[in-house]
Design brief:
The protein is α+β, with helices and mostly antiparallel strands and 78 residues long. It has two helices and seven strands; from the N terminus they run E-H-E-E-H-E-E-E-E. The chain has a three-stranded antiparallel β-sheet with strand order 2-7-3. The longest helix has 9 residues, at 34-42.
C-alpha cells in the first residue's frame, strides 16, 4: 500500500493538544504515540498514514514539544 502523507496545521495541532493529558517526559508510563491520537482525530489509518506537523504540539502538563512519535497519555472523551 502507498503511504499517505498528511500535513497537520496549527488548528489540528491545537485540537490534539486539548486531548493530551501528558507526555513521556512528565508521565513515564505513557504508551500511546501521538500519531495514534492524530489518527483518531482525522479518521485516517495509522498503518498507511504519516503525519507532518506544521510545528510541534506542546504538552499541556510540562510544556515540552510533542512530535509525531512522542508517547503520550490522552484524555478520553466522555
Amino acid at each position: 500500500e502507498e503511504t499517505q502523507i498528511v500535513m497537520v496545521d496549527s488548528v489540528g495541532i491545537r485540537s490534539a493538544e486539548e486531548m493530551i493529558d501528558g507526555c513521556e517526559a512528565c508521565i513515564p508510563g505513557a504508551k500511546i504515540p501521538f500519531d495514534w491520537l492524530l489518527d483518531r482525530l482525522t479518521g485516517n489509518s495509522g498503518v498507511d498514514t504519516e503525519y507532518i506537523l506544521e510545528a510541534p504540539a506542546k504538552c499541556p502538563k510540562c510544556g515540552r514539544d510533542v512530535k509525531e512519535k512522542t508517547l503520550i497519555e490522552w484524555i478520553r472523551p466522555r
